[in-house]
Amino acid sequence: MKLLTPVQVGPTEIKNRVVSTAHAAFLDFFQEGTSGERYMAYQERRAEGGTGLIILTAMHVHAASQIPNHFVFHRDEMAPKFRQLSARLHRHGAKAISQLFHFGAQGKSDNHDDFHPLWSFSGSTSLAGEATHKMTGEEIEEVIESFALAATTVVASGMDGVELHGTHGYLIQQSFTPGANRRTDKWGEDLYFVKTLAQRVRDAIGPDKVMGFRISGDDYVKPDDGGIGHERLCHIASEVIGTGLFDYLNHSEGSGGADYARAIGSYRYPFGEYLPLTRNLRAAIGGAVPLIGVGKIPTPDLAEQALLDGDCDLVGMTRAQIADPDLVKKLEAGQGSRIRTCTGSNQGCIDRVSSFPITCFQNPEVGEENRFKALDVPISAVKRVLVVGGGPAGMKAAEIAARRGHDVTLVEAGMKLGGRLNLIETFGVATNLLSSIVWVEQELSTLEVKIVTQTAVDEAFVTEFKPDAIILATGAAATDELGVATDESIHVLSSDDAAVGVFEGVRFEMEGTRSLVIDQRANYETALVTESLAKRGSKVTVATPHLHFGVNMGQTHLNDYLRLLPKLGIVVLPTTSLNRISRGRAYLKHAFSGDETAGSYDFVVAGVPPKPQDSLLAILQKLAPTKMVGDAVAPRSALEAFREGDRAGRIV
C-alpha cells in the first residue's frame, strides 16, 4: 500500500504518507505560564497511532497577530515546550513541523495588548469590518524577523522544520492578493514579500531542516473583486516552489471567514472534493517537491487512490485521525475495516475552536488522552453489566465496559440500535452520521457483547438478570408541548414526527403545506428538521427567540445554513416566540418591540428539548449500582451521549 511507504521530504524521510495537518486544538499550548500538556498528549496520541508527519497548530509570530483565545509566540516560553513535544513525537517515529503565520488584516483588535490596531499592507478593512494600520517598511521587516526568530527557536528546540501559512486569507496570502496589497513600493511587487520572507526563514533554519509552504488551491474571490483565482494561485505556487527554498507544498482553500465551511467541509460536501485542485497544483510545480493533498479525505481507500492517481505525494488525513488516532496502526495490522471513519459532523472539532477546546463527535478520547489513560487500569473482577438502552450513550458504554473485560448485555426496547440518531435516515445529507453507530455496533459484535432488542426492561427483568452494575441509557422522547395556550385548531408536531412526516401515527405529504417551526433549541437537530421540511415541499417559517437562526451551531454549519435558507425559501423570524394558537392562526410576539403578528399554518413543529426517560432510575438503584448517562440525564446531542457512555464504561 503506497500510503504506508516512506517518502523523502527535503532532508528528512517520512515513514509513511499520512499527514496530520495544522488545525486549531488546545491553543493554551502557546499561552505563557501553561504546561501545554493537553496539546502534547493529544499530538503524541496521533504519533503513537502511526502518523508519519504532524504539522502543529499555526503559531502567531508577532504581537500584531493577536486574536481571542490565541497566543503569540514567546521564545523563552515556547523553546522548552517544543523540546518536550518534539521528543515525544520522535519517540514514535513521527516527524514534526511547526506552522508559522500572521493574521494581518483579519479579525478585530479587541484582544491586542493596549488595543494596538491590526496590521495590513494597504490599510484595508478586515472581514470583521475594522479598519487596519498600513504597515511601514520597517514594520514589514519587523514581521519578517519575527517569522525568522520563531523558526530559529522551533528548529533549535528539536522540531524537524517549519511551514509558512499562506492560505485562509492571512498575512502571507494578503501579500499577493490584489485587493489586499495595493502598495506602490517594493512590498507591492509581485511575490516580493513571500520571496523575501522565504529566504530569511531559510537562512535562519539552514539547509538541514524542512521548510514547507501552504497555499490556497482557490481563494473563492473573483479576480474582478480583488481576488486571485485558481489559475493564478497555481502560477504563484510554481513561482514560490521555483525559488528552490521549499521542501514541500501543502494547500487548503479559501480566504478565511465563511470559507472555512468549504475548506473544512461537513457531511454536506463530497469526499475528496478538492483533489482536482490538488492535481492542478502538482502539475503547476512539475513534481519539483512533494505535495500534500487535502480536503475531506477520511478513508484510506480514497487516500491511496489519490496517491496512485498522482494527485499528491502525501495525504492530509487530519479529521480522520481525530476520529481514529490508530488509523495507521490498524492499516499496518490488516484491520482497515475497524477504522472509525470521520462522519464529517464538524460538531466537535472545527465548530468548537473559536471558543472551546476541540473534541470529536464520536471519539471522546480527544483532548482527554491523559485522563483516559489513567482510567485504563486492569479491572479487579469481571462484572455482569446490564446496559439499558441502545442509543449512542448505551452503545458506547457497552463497548468500553466490554473492552475492559466485563461481561456486558445491552438491552434495547426498539427494533435496532442507534436511538433517536436513527432519524438522520430521513435527512439526506446528514446520513453519514450513522456511520458512528455502525462502527460501535461492529465493535460490540467483535467484543461479543450480548444484544437483546425489542425487550422492555422492568423490575422483574432486572431481578432475574442479577447484574453487578447497571448503566441506564434510556434517552429522551420528543414532545409537542410548547407551553402556550392553544385551542388545537392547528396541529402541533414533535420534531421527531415532523422529521418523518407523521401525525398521530399517520404519514402525510409535505408538498404544498405551510409549516411554522418554533425553534427554541437553535441547534443542529432543529436545523436539520427545518431543512428537511423545506426539501419535502413545505413552505417553512422559523420563529426563534434567539438573535438569529442556529445560534447554538458552529461556524461551518451556520455558514452553510445562511447560504441554504434563502435557496429553500425558509423565512426566519428572530427574537420571536409563539404567544398562542387560536382559530387556525398562530400568534407570534417579538421579544423587544412586543408587537404581535398572526399567520395561518397547516401545522406547527415544536423545536423544543425532548423529555428525559428516567423513570427506571429509582427502581434500578435498589437492585444494583446504577449510572445514568446521555439524554436520560439531560437531552443534548449524540456528542455528549457518546462521551458520557464512554465515561460510564470506563469506571464501571
Structure description:
- This protein has 652 residues and is of the alpha/beta class.
- The chain folds into 3 domains: 2-371, Aldolase class I (TIM Barrel, Alpha-Beta Barrel), CATH 3.20.20; 380-477 and 612-651, NAD(P)-binding Rossmann-like Domain (Rossmann fold), CATH 3.40.50; 485-609, 3-Layer(bba) Sandwich (FAD/NAD(P)-binding domain), CATH 3.50.50.60.
- The strands form 8 sheets. The protein has an 8-stranded parallel sheet with strand order 10-9-8-5-4-3-12-11. It has a 5-stranded parallel sheet with strand order 15-14-13-16-30.
- Helix 14 links the parallel strand 14 and strand 15.
- The two termini are 40 Å apart.
Structural class: alpha/beta
CATH topology of the largest domain: TIM Barrel
Query: How many H/I helices?
Result: 20
Q: How far do the termini sit from each other?
A: 40 Å
How many β-strand stretches? 30
Secondary structure layout plus pairing:
Elements lengths: L6 E3 L2 E3 L3 E3 L16 H12 L4 E8 L14 H16 L4 E7 L17 E2 L12 E2 L2 H20 L4 E6 L4 H5 L16 H14 L4 E7 L13 H13 L5 E5 L7 H4 L11 H11 L6 E2 L6 H9 L5 E3 L1 H6 L3 H6 L36 H7 L8 E5 L3 H12 L3 E5 L23 H12 L3 E3 L6 H7 L3 E4 L3 E2 L7 E2 L4 E4 H6 L1 E2 L2 E2 L6 E6 L4 H12 L3 E5 L11 H14 L2 E3 L2 E7 L2 E6 L5 E5 L2 E5 L3 E2 L4 H5 L4 E3 L9 H14 L1
Parallel strand pairs: 3-4, 3-12, 4-5, 5-8, 6-7, 8-9, 9-10, 11-12, 13-14, 13-16, 14-15, 16-30, 18-25, 19-28, 22-23, 22-28, 23-24
Antiparallel strand pairs: 1-2, 17-29, 20-21, 25-26, 26-27
Helix pairs in contact: 1-2, 2-3, 3-5, 6-8, 13-14, 13-20, 17-18
